[in-house]
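Table S2 (continued). Query chain:
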Amino acid sequence: MSETLSITTPDGAFSAYVARPAAASAPAVVVIQEIFGVNRVMRDICDGLAAQGFLAICPDLFWRIEPGIDITDKSEAEWKRAFELYNAFDVDAGVSDIAATIAAARTLPGASGKVGAVGYCLGGLLAFLTATRTDADASVSYYGIGIEKHLAETEKLARPLLLHVAELDQFVPPEARKMILDGLKDHPQIEIHTYAGRDHAFAREGGEHYDAADAAKANGRSLTFFKTHLA
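Corresponding output:
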């Protein structure tokens, strides 16, 4: 079952896509969008999580720029618009909106009170910052862009974080990837998996760099992680 939720902040209100599991009570997972808005890919991820027993919520983080963005990766015009949105996006405000979503998720009917977060691309960075700046119980980052600029924030990290890192990510240069792996590998709260031969967005079904085997491997690890830490 899906519905639309309105979340109110001091700056205004924004919408979120919600997919509900069959269970009467379930942990929640905040799904953090790529640069294409709350599109079919994000809604499908929410629906998949709901089928696995989670209450999934995907907030519209571009609402401050333009509410209701729903584009794909299939045309040059959409890619151009996606990067315009990415460049206009305020990361700090986005994390604040995720924190508001987490707070709302804890009190939704049918919510157990535990809340995780999972993000992809831009959302991968935001998931990392969600882990360091909010009270999310567990966070998962897929191929986050720009994490190397925020490594000092792990000093504040008190809850589990899982990172999926593509070894050939065109948006995370080798030197940035080395900084991330070297800087985070010994942190007691962080689990890191790297994927050889994979480019950015290898887990985006239907995307140019999608790899079914490694997507399944990463998603299986994420599911186990959430079942462990959101129980």
